[in-house]
Write a structure and sequence with these properties.
3-stranded antiparallel β-sheet; DNA polymerase, domain 1; single chain; 313 residues
Length: 313
């Protein structure tokens, strides 16, 4: 098999067997092609192709190259991880006999706190949705799902009508790695979605020839809403609210998690709702606001309560 055939086979494996999203598969492909370009550079004569790495120096030299090139630590970490997965796959197929990326030292990635938006800012976005208009009502439901259920944008776009259980007020979400989970809808969101599906969605659907389309959220042409489309909707809502800050769907997911923890939800519950495989991923949201921490402290610690009672006397 040549390089192109091997790469294509690997990408099919990621999609069909691992259930990776299109965005993740594209990232893996770009990382492999970046390494392929490095290997084929005349300045690196040690290997002839990405399936003929005769020495560990090929991997070491590549990591050194992308570091000097100025790739961010997070990008280097991702590239190494992608190549490690790629060569483990080639090992399993006996296309190569050693994975030189398996013991590469990963760069330390500085922990960044997730960006969140305030409840008042979220409410402002809800307020500018025109509920008499089919697109406005759809946008209102989109906000409800992103902020009220903590969905990833890909999960929102791929959601189908059959996934919604109005009796139990839950939505079956098909998440990363083909892992399903059930998220809870607050009462108003369930009512809003039911109304949208029976009225405005029907109107949108008839703008398209795809009358068998079962996706919940449709664009103005009646076809499945895309990730780019959701981002444009959010940007427009921010503009309509006379604000200038940048917003992304993931910020609403961050805000959902933070609001849940600030409201007293336990970490395991938030982990389950977000669909995180590891609790350590969820722990980044323990950066609850200092005001909330102080409030909890003052309402809980006996010495703080004693001081508070003195002030009241």
């Amino acid at each position: 098999m040549n390089e192109e055939e091997v790469i294509n086979e690997f990408l099919v494996y990621l999609s069909s067997e691992k259930g990776y999203s299109e965005n993740t598969i594209l990232s893996y492909k770009n990382d492999i092609l970046d390494f392929k370009e490095f290997i084929h550079d005349k300045k690196n004569p040690i290997a002839n192709s990405i399936i003929e790495l005769w020495h560990k120096s090929n991997a070491d030299n590549y990591v050194g190259f992308i570091s000097l090139r100025g790739d961010k630590s997070s990008t280097i970490h991702r590239r190494i991880s992608a190549l490690n997965t790629f060569y483990n796959y080639l090992l399993s197929r006996k296309i190569v006999y050693e994975n030189y990326f398996s013991d590469i030292d990963m760069p330390k990635i500085p922990k960044r706190l997730p960006k969140v938006i305030k409840e008042s800012e979220v409410q402002a976005l809800f307020n500018v949705c025109d509920l008499e208009n089919k697109l406005g009502y759809r946008n209102y439901c989109i906000l409800g799902c992103l902020y009220g259920c903590g969905l990833r944008v890909s999960e929102l776009c791929n959601m189908e009508i059959k996934d919604i259980d109005f009796n139990s007020r839950t939505i079956r979400i098909h998440g990363k790695g083909s892992k399903d989970r059930d998220v809870v809808m607050y009462s108003d969101l369930a009512d809003n979605l039911k109304h949208y599906l029976s009225t405005f969605r029907v109107e949108l659907l008839y703008n398209s020839k795809e009358l068998n389309n079962r996706h919940v959220f449709l664009n103005k042409n009646g076809t499945q809403l895309t990730r780019v489309g959701v981002r444009k909707i959010l940007d427009k809502l921010v503009s309509d609210a006379n604000d200038t800050y940048h917003i992304s769907p993931h910020m609403l997911r961050h805000s959902f998690a933070t609001a849940m923890l600030n409201g007293g939800a336990d970490m395991r519950t938030v982990q389950e709702l977000l669909g995180h495989e590891s609790l350590s991923t969820t722990q980044i949201y323990t950066h609850v606001s200092q005001d909330f921490i102080k409030q909890s402290y003052n309402l809980s610690h006996p010495r703080a309560l004693k001081e508070d009672n003195k002030k009241k006397q």
